[in-house]
Amino acid sequence: MPLMSAQAYRExxxxxxxxxxxxxxxxxxxxxxxLQITVDHSAQVYSLAEDPALRDVMTVEADGGRISRYFxxxxxxxxxxxxxxxxxxxxxxxxxxLNIVKAIGTDALxxxxxxxxxxDQELGATYGQRVQAFYRHCRDRDLTMAVAxxxxxxxxxxxxxxxxxxDLYVRIVERRQDGIVVRGAKAHTTAGPVVHELIxxxxxxxxxxxxxxxxxxxxxxxxxxxxxxxxTTGSTQQSAFDYPISRRHIETESLTVFDDVFVPWDRVxxxxxxxxxxPLALTFANFHRFTAISYKPPTGDLFIGAAQLIAEWNGVxxxxxxxxxxxxxxxxxxxxxxxTRAAALDxxxxxxxxxxxxxxxxxxxxxxxxxxxxxxxxxxQDIAGGLVITAPSEADLRNPETGPYVEKFLRTRKDVDAAxxxxxxxxxxxxTASEFGGYNLVxxxxxxxxxxxxxxxxxxxxxxxxxxxxxxxxxxxx
Length: 478
Ligand SMILES: Cc1cc2nc3c(=O)[nH]c(=O)nc-3n(C[C@H](O)[C@H](O)[C@H](O)COP(=O)(O)OP(=O)(O)OC[C@H]3O[C@@H](n4cnc5c(N)ncnc54)[C@H](O)[C@@H]3O)c2cc1C
Hints:
By secondary structure, the protein is α+β, with helices and mostly antiparallel strands. The protein has 17 helices and 14 strands. 49% of the residues lie in helices and 15% in strands. Helix 4 crosses helix 9, helix 7 crosses helix 10 and helix 14 packs across helix 15. The radius of gyration is 24 Å and the shape is globular. Bound molecules: flavin-adenine dinucleotide.
C-alpha cells in the first residue's frame, strides 16, 4: 500500500476529464491559471504526508502498510479526537483553507459503511462487501475523493418526481445486466475537478414514488458523461502580497453533470431502496459537520491574531472596546473547538462499530460556527479600519514613484514596518472582503448544509422528554 506522492497526484489528474472553466474546456487542469491553485492546494495532502515532521499526523500504520490517517474508520472517542487533530493541523498548514480531498470522501465512506450494514441486515443485501471493496480501492491507492450530494433541486417545494424536469435530482434512467445508467446534476461539488473519485449520495429522505432517485454510487472523474462546470475565483496572475491566502489556497466547486453515465454494479451502493436515502444523507451530513467544526478553528485563530496585531500596530490595543471585541473572537473560536471535542467524547456507536460524533454537539457547533461567522467578520473589520479595503497594492509599494509615499504614510510608528502593516490589511481583506472573503461568508452559511438543517437535527435528536419530565415535576404533575 504505497502512499501517493504529490508529483504522482498531479500527473494522475491528466486523464482526459471533462472540466470547464469560464466557458472553455480545460486540457490540463494542473496548468490552468485558476485550477492550478486548487491543484497545488490539494496536492499538499500528499506533500505534508511526505514531511517527516508530520508523518505521524498525516499517516498511520494499518493492515501491514502505511495509510493516510483520513481513512481510519472511527471506532471510538480516541479515533474521533485524532481525526479532529488531523483536520485542524492540516487546515492550519493550509492557512485556514480546508483541504477537502480526503476529508469529505472518508466522511461519506464512514456513512456508507454504516448504512450498507443496515441494508444488509434488514434486506439481506450485500452492499457491505461493495462498500468495503471500494473503501480499500481508495485507501490502498491513496486516492482523493469528492462528494456530490446536493442536487440542483429545482423548485424546493416539490419532491423529485414532481419537478417539471425529472432530471433535477440525480436518478437511475436504466438498469442493465452489468450496472445502471444515471442522469442529472449535482451543485457545488467541492474539489470535483481535482480528485480521482466522485462519490454520489442522495440529498434528502425519499418516498417510494421517488425510488429511482434513491441512488448512491462512485465513479472516476474521467468517466464518459461526467462533466464539471467550475466556478471562477483566484488566479496565478494575482500577487501573493495582495492575496496572501487565496493566491495559494483555494477550493474550486463545480456543477457536476451526469449525462447518462454508466456505473457498474460493484460501484452502486443504493439502488432504489428509498427508505435508506434519508439515513444515508443524514449520517454523511453528521460526519461532514464534524469535519466542518474541526476545520473552522484555524480561521478563528487567524482572525484573533490579525485583530490583535492590527490593534497593536494601530495603537488601539489597550482600548476597552477593542479588548472586548477580541475576547468575543476568542469565544467564537473556542466554542467551536469545545463542541468538536464534546462531539468526539460522546459518540453514538453505529453497527458494525463505527463511532458517529454526537449529533447534538456536532450540529450545535456547526450552527454556532455558521450563524456567528458574519459577526466574527464584523468584529475583525471593525477593529482593523477602512484600509482593509482601501490599502494600496504591492505594485504601488514597489513603484519608485509611489513606494516612498506608501512607506511613509502606512507607517504608524517607528517600530511598525509599513510593508508588513500593508500586507496585514491585505490578509484581512482576503479573508473577509475579497472575492475569496465573500466566498468565506457564503460557504460558512451553506457549506455542510444550511442553518435550518442543523437546527432541525438538533431539535430531533434532543431528549425533550427529559426536559418535559422536569417541568412536570416542577408543576407537581408526576
Ligand atoms: C462553497 C460551497 C461548497 C459546497 N460543497 C459541497 C460539496 O462538496 N458537496 C455537496 O454535495 N454539496 C456541497 N455544498 C452544498 C451545500 O450543502 C448546500 O449549499 C446547502 O445544503 C444549501 O443548499 P442550496 O445551496 O441548494 O440552497 P437551498 O436549498 O436553495 O437553500 C436556500 C434557503 O432555502 C431554504 N430552503 C430550501 N429548501 C426548503 C424547503 N423545502 N422548505 C423551506 N425552506 C427551504 C434553506 O433552508 C435556505 O435558507 C456546498 C455549498 C457551498 C456554498
